[in-house]
Write a structure and sequence with these properties.
Blueprint lengths: L1 H10 L7 E2 L2 E5 L6 H4 L18 E7 L11 E6 L5 E8 L4 E7 H6 L1 E2 L3 E5 L7 E11 L7 E7 H36 L3 H19 L2 H5 L5 H26 L7 H24 L4 H28 L5 H24 L5 H4 L1 H43 L9 H8 L2 E12 L2 H27 L5 E6 L2 E6 L6 H11 L10 E10 L2 H20 L5 E3 L9
Parallel strand pairs: 14-15
Antiparallel strand pairs: 1-10, 2-3, 3-9, 4-8, 4-10, 5-6, 5-9, 7-8, 11-13, 11-14, 12-13
Helix pairs in contact: 1-4, 4-5, 4-12, 5-7, 5-12, 7-8, 7-9, 8-9, 9-10, 10-12, 14-15
Length: about 550
């Protein structure tokens, strides 16, 4: 939708709409006045590009205007530039000269969308013959007067409508992406996402300021103050985008020297932006040049990052390249346009907002893919952690809990529990008869039999050798006998018969001391079972709970 909106806006006449005006330049000097200069066109320089005149005060004269008597009001429009004040003089065929003065604050009050400065000329019966501008305190970074035009009310309305749709689409897309990525950042907490959200916030703010909307919200703000804000916000967009890039790729891509390059690039843009905000117009041309060079350096710093990502087979490089090719290209064109004095073009001047918005939409795909890969990595890490934890807590031969994990799960609960100590009878003879491999298989079969006999919630462990333990809160009275019966009928290697003796005791397990007492009790009962002939169960009286 946004792409089609931009295409529609590009095809429509927006920004510098109306009749283009050619201007000639004369540097201001004492004794000059509008009445004299309207009839002294020969004193004006029409060949030298405006940017070569440097800063200062200037007069600019239009070409003769062959216009009929205006049936509707005409608006004089030009793109916003850094200047202290401007006076527009309009000469009519009856010799009348009308002047309209605007200081720095008045310029803000008459900004239209696209940061187009506009003043309406009074309606007169005589046709307009010529226009003259007196510009005071012009920085002349890219021109004294940019893209001046004469537009009718209908042309102004159509331009405002198209630009409103464009900037609203840009702002809506950025706001939606910001909320989307804020949710992802809160849920997933990946390092690159806060920087992406910061970039969206800065882009929204830059869209608000550079479009001229900020002047509508703050009508008393000076236009040069708004332009200072533009410098800082655009630098913040670039720096946060670089920080996002630094954290977006895998750690193996961002080597130490690349991180240092990123820091240097951020400083090269941020420092002159802050200097302009604090000190302009003092040193404005110098700081603006450093600002442009810093942007070129920042854009150039992306190249070694991409090269290293390609060398190290980064999985995220294709998505980043697709998403960021357009904004990087437009940023380079706009920066070069300012540094090398290329002719002003409305869409190049507004390319940052549009291209970064397109990037934001495409980057959503890259971020989605990045999040998917990181989520898979996280899930795999969790699975490995769970597997490692299970491996650390289980007996490798039988799959039952080991002694440490068994005690961790059994001890520390309120209430009484029953402990069963199970010992396989004559297991040494089993090993001697069928070998140790056969004995291991007997242990595995018994562990499987024990699991099948136990209800949910019971803890079973191999304490060591052929000794096993079971802790259960409310056992069936016939549980121990059922275990022995299942063992007698289990199919063992070489069809040997294996039996076991069980000792059981009931008592508390709130503390380590309780476990030791309960274990001694059950072990005594186990000894009685073996003494009575094995393959049987013996119980001991329940232990009493003592107050701590």
């Amino acid at each position: 939708m946004l792409v089609s909106l931009c295409a529609g806006a590009a095809n429509a006449q927006v920004g510098p709409v109306g009749i283009p005006i050619r201007t000639c330049v004369l540097r201001d000097a004492p004794g000059l006045s509008a009445a004299k200069l309207f009839h002294a066109a020969g004193r004006f320089d029409c060949a030298t590009p405006q940017a070569r005149f440097g800063g200062g005060d200037f007069w600019l004269l239009s070409q003769p205007l062959d216009l009929p008597a205006a049936e509707s009001r005409l608006a004089v429009r030009s793109s916003s530039v850094w200047q202290r004040a401007m006076t527009i003089y309009a000469l009519y065929a009856d010799g009348t000269i009308v002047s309209i003065r605007s200081d720095d604050v008045a310029v803000s009050r008459h900004l239209r969308l696209g940061a187009i400065f506009q003043r309406w000329l009074p309606r007169r019966s005589a046709p307009l013959v010529r226009l003259l501008w007196h510009v005071e305190g012009a920085a002349n970074l890219r021109g004294i007067l940019l893209a001046p035009t004469l537009a009718t009310g209908g042309e102004v309305t159509r331009s405002d409508t198209h630009l409103a749709a464009l900037y609203a689409g840009v702002g809506g897309a950025c706001a939606a992406l910001l909320l989307f990525n804020l949710g992802l950042a809160y849920a997933l907490r990946h390092r690159f996402m806060p920087f992406y959200c910061l970039m969206m916030v800065a882009l929204l703010a830059y869209d608000l300021s550079s479009s001229g909307t900020l002047a509508w919200l703050l009508p008393d703000i000076a236009n040069t103050a708004r332009m200072r804000i533009n410098y800082v916000l655009l630098a913040l967009v670039a720096v946060s985008a670089l920080a996002f890039l630094r954290n977006f790729f895998e750690q193996r891509v961002m080597t130490l020297w690349l991180r240092r390059v990123c820091v240097a690039a951020a400083v090269s843009v941020g420092v002159p932006a802050i200097a302009i905000a604090l000190f302009a117009p003092i040193g404005l041309r110098l700081f603006d040049t450093i600002y442009g060079i810093g942007f070129l350096f920042l854009l150039g710093s992306i190249v070694p990052i991409l090269v290293n990502a390609w060398r190290r087979n980064s999985a995220f490089l294709p998505f980043f390249t697709i998403a960021w090719s357009l904004p990087i290209a437009f940023a380079a064109v706009r920066t070069a346009s300012g540094l090398f004095g290329w002719p002003y073009h409305f869409w190049i001047d507004n390319s940052s907002v549009i291209s970064m918005t397109v990037e934001a939409l495409l980057s959503s795909l890259a971020i989605g893919h990045r999040v998917l890969l990181l989520t898979r990595e996280r899930d795999e890490a969790r699975e490995q952690e769970i597997a490692a934890r299970l491996l650390a807590d289980t007996d490798s031969l039988t799959g039952l809990l080991n002694r440490r994990a068994f005690l961790r799960g059994a001890v520390g609960h309120e209430g009484d529990f029953t402990l069963l100590l199970v010992d396989l009878d004559h297991f040494k003879h089993v090993n001697e008869t069928i070998g140790h491999d056969g004995g291991d298989e007997v242990l595995r079969i018994f562990a499987r039999t024990l699991r099948q006999a136990l209800p949910a919630g019971a803890l079973a462990a191999r304490l060591g050798g052929e000794e096993f333990a079971v802790v259960i809160a409310d056992p069936d009275e016939a549980l121990a006998e059922d275990i022995l019966d299942r063992l007698r009928h289990a199919r063992m290697p070489f069809d040997i018969t294996v039996t076991a003796s069980i000792g059981q005791c009931r008592g508390p397990l709130a503390r380590e001391a309780d476990w030791k007492a309960l274990y001694r009790c059950a072990d005594t009962a186990l000894f009685e079972a073996k003494k009575a002939g094995r393959d049987r169960v013996r119980g001991a009286p329940a232990l009493r709970r003592f107050a701590a």
